[in-house]
Design brief:
The chain is an alpha/beta fold. The protein is built from eleven helices and 20 strands. It has two domains: 226 residues, ANL, N-terminal domain (Rossmann fold, 3-Layer(aba) Sandwich), CATH 3.40.50.12780; 96 residues, GMP Synthetase, Chain A, domain 3. The model has no long low-confidence stretch (mean pLDDT 93). It binds zinc ion (ZN).
């Protein structure tokens, strides 16, 4: 991704004073002569900021303004240890609302829309972000919060909600209940704005068809404002991220090297205007790629597009020098005719070479047809991912069933 001139200006301005404002960056960049950062190449030599650094700075070590400028904090979940606290100034809160308002506009909302918000309220950034954005945009926010499906459905009917904001799993649950209760005709839903986790194509299709709505992905994370940093548009060309607030990079998570556009790697985000807790080269652990080119038929300008998330860096594995993710294997499997959705990958190392065997289920038991399908899977894999695999067709129900994607990858090399 080539850094845009306006972004470089903002970054240089930010870096010029960051050490004075932020004790966190004074320490992190202690050995860096900030005057030596003049362009994209030198910027890419700056050390990354990690979630572990933010945990270490708990509670407010990341704060880069005097106390009287802080108006709010948010916190990312602490399920894996000490939580991270992010302080916001009034400008940060306003900027976040501005970005989120742009998201509602980008998906075709109007001031007449009624926005049904089911993500949670509280320390994390979900519910309140959806609400701030809706209010800033001028639509009507219906701040439900999560749970109590009965009440959600009643309000959806009574209030004639038009936009559903939800996680993909809650959207699916609601869709199923709506189908079960036969109340689709009483609803006015027309759009679904779904928080960015990785969700499969099949789940998306089910939610869209059962609810009869257009679905959009919204991206963001608590460390970087929250949801609203970017959103997909009706043309599904990726998630448009706002260039004046965030600078996006994609790196090889193993080597830290910046990857060319189109290659999947870890998203790294630099905030361009954040006051309370500016972040420089923050590693998100989200896997995506930058969509090459500037043009989308929707006409949105000054955005960088990223693809829908393909997973987390922890899911990544490397075979024959190529980084791969379960989602990519799944995509190949799903694209070959006659192959069902179940698969398992076995990786071995024999005679100095990696061997990747991909087991998948297919509908036919005819040996000749199975052989054809195996060839097709092998060829598609080679074309799309660049690795030659050993394809093994099995019958439907022959592979072990598992909810967890990671157990589908069996690595016998280490
Ligand atoms: Zn677009």
């Amino acid at each position: 991704m080539k850094m845009k001139p306006a972004q470089l200006d903002m970054i240089l301005k930010e870096l010029a004073t960051i050490k004075e404002r932020s004790p966190f960056y004074a320490k992190k960049f202690a050995d860096v002569d900030m005057a030596s950062i003049t362009d994209q190449e030198s910027f890419e030599r700056l050390p990354f900021s990690e979630k572990a650094d933010l945990r270490e700075a708990y509670p407010l070590g990341i704060q880069a303004v005097p106390d009287e400028k802080i108006v709010r904090i948010h916190s990312s979940s602490g399920t894996t240890g000490t939580p991270v606290i992010i302080p916001y100034t009034q400008k940060d809160v306003d900027d976040w609302a501005e970005m989120f308002a742009r998201c509602y506009k980008a998906i075709g909302c109007t001031k007449l829309d009624r926005v049904h918000i089911t993500p949670g309220y509280g320390l994390w950034t979900a519910g309140i972000g959806f609400q701030l954005g809706a209010e800033r945009f001028g639509a009507m926010a219906i701040p439900m919060g999560p749970g109590n499906t009965e009440k959600q459905l009643k309000m959806m009917v009574d209030m004639q909600s038009t936009v559903l904001c939800a996680t993909s799993s809650y959207a699916l649950l609601l869709a199923e209940r709506i189908a079960q209760d036969g109340i689709r005709d009483k609803l006015a839903l027309r759009k679904g704005l779904i928080g960015s986790e990785r969700w499969g194509k099949k789940m998306r299709e089910r939610i869209a068809s059962e609810l009869g709505v257009e679905l959009y992905d919204i991206y963001g994370l608590t460390e970087i404002y929250g949801p609203g940093v970017g959103v997909s548009c009706q043309y599904n060309t990726g998630i448009h991220c706002w260039d004046d607030f965030v600078y996006m990079e994609v790196i090889d998570p193993k080597t830290g090297k910046t990857l060319p556009d189109g290659e999947v790697g870890e998203l790294v985000i630099t905030t361009l205007q954040k006051e309370g807790a500016p972040l420089i080269r923050y590693r998100t652990h989200d896997l995506s790629s930058i969509v090459p080119g500037d043009d989308c038929p929707c006409g949105l300008e000054n955005t960088t597009r990223i693809t829908q998330l393909v997973g987390r860096t922890d899911d990544m594995f490397k075979v024959k020098g190529v980084n791969m993710f379960p989602a990519q294997v799944e995509e190949v499997i799903n694209s070959v005719d006659g192959v069902s959705s179940e698969y398992q990958v076995m990786i071995d190392h024999l005679n100095g070479k990696d061997i990747m065997t991909v087991y998948f289920e297919c509908e036919t038991s005819d040996p000749l047809r199975r052989h054809e399908i195996e060839d097709a899977v092998q060829e598609t894999f080679k074309n799309r991912i660049g690795v030659t695999i050993v394809p093994k067709a099995e019958g439907i129900g022959d592979l072990p069933r598992s909810e967890k994607k990671s157990t589908r990858i069996l690595d016998n090399r280490y």
